[in-house]
Amino acid sequence: MITRIRRLAAILALLSLPATAHAATLEQMAGQMIVVGFQGDDVVDAAVETLRDELAAGRLGGVMLLKINVKSLDAVAAINAAFRAASPALLPFITLDQEGGAVERLTKEVGFKEIPNAAAIAAENSPEQAEAIYAEMASAIADLGFTVNFGPVADVNLNKNNQIIAKFGRAFSDDPAVVARYDAAFIKAHHAAGLLTALKHFPGHGSSTGDSHEGFVDITQTWQPAELDPYRALMADKLVDMVMVGHLYQADYSDAGTQTPSSLSPQWITGVLRGDLGYDGVVISDDLEMGAIRDHFTLEQTVTMAVRAGMDVLLFSNTAKYRASLGQEILDILVAEAEADPAFAARIEESYERIVQLKSRIR
To answer: What is the rounded distance in angstroms from the CA atom of residue 331 to the CA atom of residue 308?
Structure first.
């Protein structure tokens, strides 16, 4: 059955909103690499209208909704319908974090059925039962018009005192094989609802002793190669839509004399993820406004380093210093760098091709 949200999106597309077919210009290819957050919780808000226009023009690839954008489920449905209608030929990444437990943008306060965190799900349910739980959640997310849920967490719960993963029960297990089985349940449930997913937080946040939201996180002494095992297993089963790379520093995978986090590191993205693990799908950053990035790199450094490292999608929550122009600022950096450097332009084209291929699976 066609959902109400998709009917509304189709009507809006036919009535008035311009749409761009698959992008061909440098600006439109670069635009597909950008996903930003915004301030507004109603379809008539200026920020929503601005993003709708940018999506329609091909200057933006997607949007990120946070709790501040959720006034009601009906309001979210209307906003997402407008975003879908703005670019029906190449649907946007309309994203949220809806893991369950503490990490939920849609809550019972607005009438959304909440579910337990990953640790509780795995403790109390088989993978098959977990898939049924996630299927109900995914269906409700899809009915609101979202196209991407940032999950599942592929981190292995190695540090029981971890303040961002273990503290909130976000990892399924301390056993990589168990993590992979429950990750698969999460992904299959979302695929059945027509949603894309993103494994996080590569190369592994479960052993860390810090929180990259707050600042620099050094995993040199704690990270273990087994933290890559869930990624290997899910890639072997061809279940991976996107891999989200965290802001984690491991000295053995950083250029000499630098402290480059994994999200900006060619050794991690091009070397380990694409080279060693053989992954050729879409790579998306964790929020590039987290303290681990904004406290150490300028916007221009962040954008150019991430793309050169092999990143396909640049995620900015737009919460550190909100401005409606952020997407355009990022786009200007991408285009200027590409016009000056053919190798950078080629990277943009590679990312664009991956993004278009992935977006063709959105329903």
So the answer is: 15
Can you read off the two tokens belonging to residue 22? 């698959």
**pLDDT single digits (tens) 275-292:** 999 999 999 999 999 988
pLDDT digits (tens, 9 = 90+) for 339-360: 999 999 999 999 999 999 999 9
Confidence check: pLDDT of 1 > 60 = no
pLDDT digits (tens, 9 = 90+) for 31-44: 999 999 999 999 99
Residue at token pair 């909704």: 65
Complete domains list, the chain, with CATH: 103-359 (3.20.20.300)
Contact predicate 266/308, CB 8 Å: yes
Say whether pTM exceeds 0.85. Answer: yes
Name the residues annotated as catalytic.
Answer: 213, 286
Q: Which long-range contacts (CB under 8 A, 24 or more apart) does 101-105 make?
A: 101/168, 101/169, 101/170, 102/168, 102/169, 102/170, 103/168, 103/170, 105/65, 105/66, 105/67, 105/69, 105/70
Per-residue tokens: 209: 């002793």
